[in-house]
């Protein structure tokens, strides 16, 4: 019987750097794809750090233009990096879990080839995830900009005192708070830092954003969920040492008077899951709900 035509003709492989086990998995997956006559690209830094040769390499920003599918081998942190880099492209992402938690990378590495084979044969569930776009506005001028799949966090650094923030939503004043900071989380990010700070868990495909204060001085400052179409402005009223973090991976220093403007990014990312994927099963397993 002839092999089923693959749903994807070219696949890019992106792995967590400096991990010998990841290197062997990438090579195993590359050989597997080659046997199915699928074009294979290795992300340039992945190939360099893992000493992989013999395959065509692509810079991260070129993957969206040349590959039909990207397979990410690592933990959720690796997936966050890839999602931000490829947000302007419509390339779907598949995550193979090499980390400890894995809300985003949900294919078990022990069953990697079987799961990838099913996806190549068109057997997968598709899910759209929103991202946030954050801009720092200083004296009327945008001085920095970036994307976040999990969260945008404005917080104090080290042992600095509480910072004072003023929050507006869609131009309407909401509150002024003294706290360790504020988390603006996508539904994806509500199982990350937001969860640790007492925020709600939002279903990943909800058109919503969660605002979660970090250790507020006044306990009436509670987490709230708002429409993802809303625009949030966070003004740094007073802070000795504050910064904004995107997905906990990108950091930018803030000054008193700065505004951090957060809105839903224009594009979404597409995650492909094995057939039968269920978010409640993931929550039950990862959060040990029993």
TrEMBL record:
Pfam families linked: NAD_kinase, NAD_kinase_C
Binding of NAD(+), residues: 76-77, 150-151, 161, 178, 180, 191-196, 249
Which superkingdom does the taxonomy of this entry point to?
A: Bacteria
What cofactor(s) does the depicted protein rely on? Answer: a divalent metal cation
Q: What is the annotated localization of this protein?
A: Cytoplasm
Q: Which Gene3D superfamilies match?
A: Probable inorganic polyphosphate/atp-NAD kinase, domain 1, Probable inorganic polyphosphate/atp-NAD kinase, domain 2
Q: Which residues form the active site?
A: 76
- Known catalytic reactions: NAD(+) + ATP = ADP + NADP(+) + H(+)
Instruction: Extract the SUPFAM superfamilies matched here.
Output: NAD kinase/diacylglycerol kinase-like (SSF111331)
Grouped into one coarse class, the protein's main location is cytoplasm
Instruction: Enumerate the GO terms in the molecular function aspect.
Output: ATP binding; metal ion binding; NAD binding; NAD+ kinase activity
Q: Name one GO cellular component term.
A: cytoplasm
Q: Which UniProt keywords apply?
A: ATP-binding, Cytoplasm, Kinase, NAD, NADP, Nucleotide-binding, Transferase
Q: Which GO terms describe its biological process?
A: NAD+ metabolic process; NADP+ biosynthetic process
The protein's Enzyme Commission number: 2.7.1.23
Q: Which family does it belong to?
A: Belongs to the NAD kinase family.
NCBIfam families xref list: PRK01231.1 (NF002306), PRK02155.1 (NF002561)
Q: What does this protein do?
A: Involved in the regulation of the intracellular balance of NAD and NADP, and is a key enzyme in the biosynthesis of NADP. Catalyzes specifically the phosphorylation on 2'-hydroxyl of the adenosine moiety of NAD to yield NADP.
Q: What is this protein called?
A: NAD kinase
Encoding gene (name): nadK
């Amino acid at each position: 019987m002839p092999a089923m035509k693959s749903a994807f003709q070219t696949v890019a492989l992106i792995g967590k750097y400096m991990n010998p086990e990841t290197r062997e998995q990438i090579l195993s997956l590359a050989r597997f794809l080659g046997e199915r006559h699928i074009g294979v690209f290795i992300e340039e830094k992945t190939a360099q750090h893992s000493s992989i040769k013999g395959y065509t390499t692509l810079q991260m920003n070129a993957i969206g233009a040349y590959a039909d599918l990207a397979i990410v081998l690592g933990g959720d942190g690796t997936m966050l990096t890839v999602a931000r880099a490829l947000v302007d492209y419509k390339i779907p992402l598949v995550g193979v879990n090499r980390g400890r938690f894995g809300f985003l990378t949900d294919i078990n590495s022990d069953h990697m080839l079987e799961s990838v084979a099913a996806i190549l044969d068109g057997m997968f569930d598709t899910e759209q995830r929103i991202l946030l776009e954050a801009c720092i506005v200083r004296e009327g001028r945008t001085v920095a900009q970036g994307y976040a799949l999990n969260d945008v966090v404005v917080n104090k650094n080290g042992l600095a005192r509480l910072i004072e923030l003023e929050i507006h939503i869609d131009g309407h004043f909401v509150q002024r708070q003294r706290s360790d900071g504020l988390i603006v989380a996508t539904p994806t990010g509500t199982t990350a830092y937001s969860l640790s700070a007492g925020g709600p868990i939002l279903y990943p495909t909800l058109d919503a954003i969660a605002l979660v204060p970090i250790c507020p001085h006044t306990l009436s400052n509670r987490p709230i969920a708002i429409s993802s179409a809303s625009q949030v402005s966070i003004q740094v009223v007073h802070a000795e040492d504050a910064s904004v973090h995107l997905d906990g991976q990108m950091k930018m220093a803030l000054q008193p008077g700065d505004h951090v403007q957060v809105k839903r990014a224009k594009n979404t990312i597409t995650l492909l899951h094995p057939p039968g994927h269920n978010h409640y099963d993931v929550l039950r397993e990862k959060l040990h709900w029993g």
